[in-house]
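pasting for the record
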Amino acid sequence: MGKPGSSLYYGESEKKEYRYTPFHQFTFGPTSAVGEPLVFARGTTSGTHLLVNPDLWLFFELEEKTCGNGIWWDPQRGVEAVVRRVIEQGNLEVVDIRVDYLLRYLKVRQMSLIVAHYRHLHLFDPKESTAEAFVEGDIVLGAPEQGAKALLQNCRIRGDILGGAPFLQRRLHLWFEINPPDIDMEDPWAEQPPFDPYTFTLPTSSGPVAPARWRHFPHTQGRTFDGQECDFMSRVCFRQEVLMKYEGKSGFDVRDDGSVSCHDYWGLVRSTARIGNELLSTAIGDFAEGLPFDEWPHWKQYAVEPPSLESIHAIRQEQSVAQAVNSLTQALARLNDAFVGVESSVGVTPPGCLWRGSLDSLAGRQLKWVYPVTADDDEFLKRATLVSTLVLDGLNTPTLRELLCHMGKKLHMSNDHPPKELGSRNLLRRVSLIGVLVAELRPRLSRIPTLVCQAEGKSETAKPCDLRMELEAVYRRVQDEFSPLAFLYDLRLHGGLAHAPNRDQAAKAAIQLGLAPRNWHRTDYLRVLNLVTESIEGISRHLETGAYVLRGSGVTGHDRGTE
């Protein structure tokens, strides 16, 4: 259909002239006025609606988020640039545009924006004194060359015109002009910073340095950059909170090393690295070339002096959030392999996948987001709930039930009367218990349901004292290993993320895991991640050992459960 663009050419005077070619040349009909509306009034069968001039969103390469919703966003910057909305109970339709986009558009068009406003006031059945004091006439203020003009009119309307009583009328016609910013005829397409690039500096080990030294923009003759000179690869540092603007925002990608990118438009990726959980470091030259000017003021807010080597070493002593989350998912991948080994050993075909979660899920991504050191308990509760969602909700319950049913018809049921189907966490705990029983007692497969019932203390049949003590010890050990997973469940139940919190029960669950009853911080979050990882690793070892025993001759050997 076409696309707007601009060009430079030499006119008759042999001077450079700038020309803009719109998507389509709209006119005002028979008038001699040159220009076109930013927004049209479009009549349809359902009424009259506002239509944004296609040239506007085509020039900025805006995308409508959902067809027909009237929200046009800039994928290069991740902001909503133009919004059409209906307000006042559907009686008023408006189109909003960001001021910086409007000024950039006026600049590239080299046209003024003329805004017209009309308002009138009617006074019906005026008092005689009011009618006598009313002065008819027109007043004109301003002029076109001043960029603003107002016409005020007072007039008396006879009642016989409208078939009613006479009334007084006051009208206001107001026009004002927004002039386009100047354009550089030598390079009209150069990105103009929204700040003074000569005075914009970032702290480095050499002192304040202006990163615009390594950036192309319209230079001002005779001006020099503030601050010191340094190498392209000199490091600049920022607090990691600078990344919170981009986490979870459509179109942006924040990676484990702290690099950030916006689609294929821009990215700070070449030399970017995290320093622990506190700082982000990159080369000042890469900063200048990688980030658009619009993003620079945001990053400057979080700029800090580069730390000393001793400080860097101290900051790196704390495990990074990304490393802890990655270790957890690696443990879950190992659990999958161990579970498949158990399924194969007992003849379940085809073997199913136990954990179906993913780091690409919403929970997986948010677990790695920046955890501010100033965050309160709500942040910890939210993160713990996300860990629970990633681990427990990612378990494939039907696969767990299928394995337990293969070992015993009622192993997937509770020991209650009447029995109930177990949830994913209790199903996994029972599978882990079976893995330990198989590894240490080497029973026949047919004896497993009985041993499970005895270990859980629900069997009424007599059993030898030494075997009873051994089974109880195994069950307590499995219970202890499952305590981090039980904590996740309890905290999600009592933390109050989606319902009224029970602070006492949440504190009790935290104390049982060795945490403080409240005032949790990032270190507590990392500890929970590591404890859950250790729990998953322990379950995997039990399943791996159990699968090895089941595949060997020990499966049908001496049945200690009958001693």
